[in-house]
């Protein structure tokens, strides 16, 4: 037991993304999106990184798990009822851009797609669950990649503005909390998800990554503008991938490298969206990638938009920390959520090799709040694991409970440090397709879904041990984190 420090209005909930759970990939007029052409398997990122990858579908050769997901499109009422049973105060989900604009560049939206989200949002509100909507969560319409070359093309600003305006106007009276782009900074490591860029259409040229970011910053500012004009009380956040970054040792060269890695990986995108201008280190950051400011297309009007329409809060994902060394090149390395690093001798790793570091979350919350003094929202955190389901359809996932407990305690500690934290939505609150590997076997949820890596199964939902535990956490507002019996 611990004395609760969580505010009474703390937003406990869970998080998903449309492309990873909805399935129904061509139902009711939906168009193809980038994830719809990403194959299943641990080598999916290697396939996408091949020089000749061109976003083609080859269903004879590959299985595409996002086509099926967990069929949330037809199970959403059942799923939200389970979230309500856990006591969710909020539910973070995304609106699939290609459900609303199948090609991405149409003038008029697809009404059938909007009606699905009408129902989804109303189902949340029926249970007093606050919707937290990510406007663009790794779901770029495929046509915007094939026809326009992805986010490096400034025309996408207008297409995104049109999409954002349609969903904001449709739902602003029902949805208070929004985020403009999921893990916008992830393009530094893997630009296909957020920007629609691969080697064959320009990902090898860093200028394209930075140009795409600028275009997204402008799109984000326009979304903030639309939202605040509809209702000044709407809360619109950015969303970044955050990996607390350590120097491997006290060597000043490694300390400097860690500082610069923080700037490039953790802060750059947030600096622009929260502070409203490019940070002082922009020129040196660009120079490291052999890019000059004069290489980028931007206008004074766009810079003015960035300055005027900054975000209201910072959403971020936190799964692991990262450790940096430039003085020793033979140190063992580990992987993570798109961000790797050298192995930290003080940390243990998950089955997927991601280092587990709850103290790093406390550090992240302090670092972000010290820097920006804006409310923070932990919108992704969780443990991907291979769950063993028994004959009674039960998963005793004590390892997941341990992981989440330690990270919730880290949030409580940060609150005691004086940090303002809005809420906590663990990732994959119901099992879904892994973004990095396209697998169902890498499970995060409180709810087990009977689907395998190739979309086969009954699609029945079963409560894991962590389901009852998280219900207890929410009921006690974070005070009761004790282990439970079956």
From TrEMBL:
<dbReference type="InterPro" id="IPR017853">
    <property type="entry name" value="GH"/>
</dbReference>
<dbReference type="InterPro" id="IPR018120">
    <property type="entry name" value="Glyco_hydro_1_AS"/>
</dbReference>
<comment type="similarity">
    <text>Belongs to the glycosyl hydrolase 1 family.</text>
</comment>
<dbReference type="GO" id="GO:0008422">
    <property type="term" value="F:beta-glucosidase activity"/>
</dbReference>
<keyword id="KW-0326">Glycosidase</keyword>
<keyword id="KW-0378">Hydrolase</keyword>
<dbReference type="InterPro" id="IPR001360">
    <property type="entry name" value="Glyco_hydro_1"/>
</dbReference>
<dbReference type="InterPro" id="IPR033132">
    <property type="entry name" value="GH_1_N_CS"/>
</dbReference>
<dbReference type="GO" id="GO:0005829">
    <property type="term" value="C:cytosol"/>
</dbReference>
<dbReference type="Pfam" id="PF00232">
    <property type="entry name" value="Glyco_hydro_1"/>
</dbReference>
<dbReference type="GO" id="GO:0016052">
    <property type="term" value="P:carbohydrate catabolic process"/>
</dbReference>
<feature type="active site" description="Nucleophile">
    <location>
        <position position="380"/>
    </location>
</feature>
<protein>
    <submittedName>
        <fullName>6-phospho-beta-glucosidase</fullName>
    </submittedName>
</protein>
């Amino acid at each position: 037991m611990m004395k609760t420090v969580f505010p009474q209005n703390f937003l406990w909930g869970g998080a998903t993304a449309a492309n990873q759970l909805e399935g129904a990939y061509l139902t009711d007029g939906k168009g193809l999106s980038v994830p719809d052409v990403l194959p299943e398997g641990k080598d999916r990122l290697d396939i996408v990184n091949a020089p000749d990858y061109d976003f083609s579908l080859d269903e004879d050769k590959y299985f595409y798990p996002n086509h099926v997901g967990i069929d949330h499109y037809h199970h959403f009422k059942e799923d939200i009822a389970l979230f309500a049973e856990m006591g969710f105060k909020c539910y973070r989900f995304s609106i699939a851009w290609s459900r609303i604009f199948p090609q991405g560049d149409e003038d008029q939206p697809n009404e059938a797609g909007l009606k699905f989200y009408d129902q989804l949002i109303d189902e949340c509100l029926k249970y007093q669950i606050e919707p937290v909507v990510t406007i663009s969560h790794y779901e770029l319409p495929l046509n915007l990649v094939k026809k326009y070359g992805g986010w490096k093309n400034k025309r996408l600003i207008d297409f995104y503005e049109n999409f954002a305006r349609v969903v904001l106007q449709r739902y602003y009276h029902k949805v208070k909390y929004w985020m403009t782009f999921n893990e916008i900074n992830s393009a530094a490591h893997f630009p296909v998800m957020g920007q629609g860029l691969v080697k064959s259409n320009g990902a090898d040229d860093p200028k394209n990554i930075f140009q795409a970011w600028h275009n997204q910053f402008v799109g984000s500012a326009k979304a903030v503008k639309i939202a605040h004009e509809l209702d000044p009380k709407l809360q619109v956040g950015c969303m970044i991938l955050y990996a607390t970054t350590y120097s491997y040792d006290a060597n000043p060269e490694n300390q400097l490298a860690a500082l610069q890695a923080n700037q490039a990986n953790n802060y750059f995108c947030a600096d622009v969206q929260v502070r409203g201008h490019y940070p002082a280190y922009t020129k040196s950051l660009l120079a490291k990638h052999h890019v000059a400011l004069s290489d980028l297309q931007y206008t004074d009007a766009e810079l003015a938009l960035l300055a005027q329409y900054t975000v209201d809060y910072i959403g971020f994902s936190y799964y692991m920390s990262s450790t940096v060394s430039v003085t020793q090149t033979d140190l063992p390395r580990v992987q993570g959520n798109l961000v790797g690093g050298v192995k930290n001798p003080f940390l243990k790793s998950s089955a997927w090799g991601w280092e587990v570091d709850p103290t790093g979350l406390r550090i992240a919350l302090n670092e972000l709040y010290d820097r920006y003094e804006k409310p923070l929202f932990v919108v992704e955190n969780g443990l991907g694991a291979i769950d063993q389901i028994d004959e009674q359809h039960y998963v005793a996932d004590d390892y997941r409970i341990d992981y989440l407990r330690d990270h919730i305690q880290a949030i409580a500690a940060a609150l005691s440090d004086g940090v303002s934290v809005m809420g906590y939505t663990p990732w994959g609150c119901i099992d879904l397709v892994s973004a990095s590997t396209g697998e169902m076997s890498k499970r995060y949820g409180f709810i087990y879904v009977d689907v395998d890596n190739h979309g086969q199964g009954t699609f029945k939902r079963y409560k894991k041990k962590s389901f009852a535990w998280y219900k207890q956490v929410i009921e006690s507002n974070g005070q009761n984190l004790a282990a439970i019996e079956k």
